[in-house]
């Protein structure tokens, strides 16, 4: 999350965006906890895990389709690594990834 936030954010806004992304992540955890607790209370653990598994599988398919449609492969542009055609990550941030290219 930090790498994407730094790559897609104008200089000087990295801390703000990282905080925003972290807040959204924590809100997701809260929503998942409340939803899971409700499902467990209403129908028990077995149904809760079945619904969770189906939701995870459905979201995995949606994510896969978005990756195919948007062409989200990292590309090397002007000596930098680009994420989904937006923002650039300086090469020194990803020295370990240089062998992949």
UniProtKB/TrEMBL annotation:
Region described as Disordered: spans on this chain: 81-101
Compartments (UniProt record): Membrane
Major facilitator superfamily (MFS) profile domain location: 1-101
Domain of life of the native organism: Eukaryota
Stretches that traverse the bilayer: 20-40, 47-66
Record's keyword annotation contains Transmembrane: yes
Name the UniProt record assigns to this protein: Major facilitator superfamily (MFS) profile domain-containing protein
Species this protein is from: Apolygus lucorum (Small green plant bug)
């Amino acid at each position: 999350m930090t790498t994407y936030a730094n790559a897609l954010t104008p200089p000087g806004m990295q801390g703000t965006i990282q905080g925003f992304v972290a807040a959204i992540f924590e809100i997701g955890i809260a929503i998942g906890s409340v939803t899971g607790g409700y499902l467990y209370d209403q129908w028990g653990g077995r149904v809760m895990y079945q619904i969770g598994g189906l939701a995870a599988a459905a979201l995995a398919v949606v994510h896969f389709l978005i990756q195919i449609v948007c062409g989200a492969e990292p590309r090397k542009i002007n000596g930098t690594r680009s994420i989904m055609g937006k923002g650039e990550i300086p090469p020194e941030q990803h020295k370990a990834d240089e062998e992949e290219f």
